[in-house]
Amino acid sequence: MATPKEFGLQFPCDFPLRIIGRNENDFENFAIEFVREFVPYLETSTVRSKTSSDGAYISVTMNFIAENREQVDMIYQAMTGHNRILFAL
Q1: What is residue 34's DSSP assignment?
Q2: Is 56:70 a contact under the CB 8 Å cutoff?
Q3: Which among 79, 75, 84, 82 is positioned nearest to 21, based on CA atoms?
């Protein structure tokens, strides 16, 4: 039987995070500031944005070093309760 360590992430690790919302002028900055609440050392050079084919939505992808599972869980928990964030991957 496999151990939980084999199926999970090993921290610290490079962690890609994608946040999807409505394509509003400030959504990229909003996403960056939102994540910086949990990842103060987030580098903006890792941020990439892409709009949907119809221009209605935007995805903001950023990479950071996740320190531990609790940090990642706190980010996802906060995102689920926010009205500007439609999806997170």
Answers
A1: H
A2: no
A3: 84
Q: Give the residue numbers spanning the domain of 72.
A: 10-88
pLDDT digits (tens, 9 = 90+) for 33-46: 999 999 999 999 98
Query: How far, in Å, CA of 73 to CA of 57, rounded?
Result: 25
pTM over 0.90: no
Tokens of 32: 């960056």
Q: Which residue has 């609440």 as its token pair?
A: 37
Separation between Cα atoms, residue 79 and residue 75, nearest integer Å: 6
**43 found inside a domain:** yes
Domain CATH for 14: 3.30.70.260
Residue 66's DSSP bridge partners are 13
Contact 18, 88 (CB under 8 A): yes
Please report, as a single letter, which amino acid is at residue 32.
I
Tell me which residue of 23, 24, 28 sits closest to 49, measured CA to CA: 28
